[in-house]
Amino acid sequence: MKALTWLKNFAYSFVLLSLVWLGLTSTFNRQELLVGLTISFFLAVVISSGYARLGLPPLGIKRLVYFMIYVLVLAREIVKANLDVAYRAIHPDVPINPGIVIINTELEEDMAKMILANSITLTPGTFTLDIVGDKLLVHWINVESESVEEATRIIGERFEKYLKVVFA
Asked: What does pTM read for this prediction?
């Protein structure tokens, strides 16, 4: 069973790395394709053997699709937050109400909580200070609500709904 899991992780990793290589090079030149597939193969071998030790869930199509959606949502939220913070910095009449709020998470895996915390920190205007159990302590540039439920909905829910599927 362990060999089957490794083989499955290897196959998904190899395909994903090969697609990334093709996306970055945008060419089907035989030499570049061969180099890309070779590098993808060796990286997949390394990633697959260390994957289980990281405590990550087994790879699967559904998880990969949700992870890709999560990355797109994260990118969109980073752009939106950058524009919001830039507007607040340039426009003197836009209020800034900094503060620290607590948000809850339903994520159980430590790796999932860490990814959620880093996602929050990557969006300008928010910074995760600490993770304690199922709570995250977040500094927020413009506190819209001190209610834990409302702050959780505004800050964490946009990422957590995808991470729940990835780490289920």
From this structure: 0.73
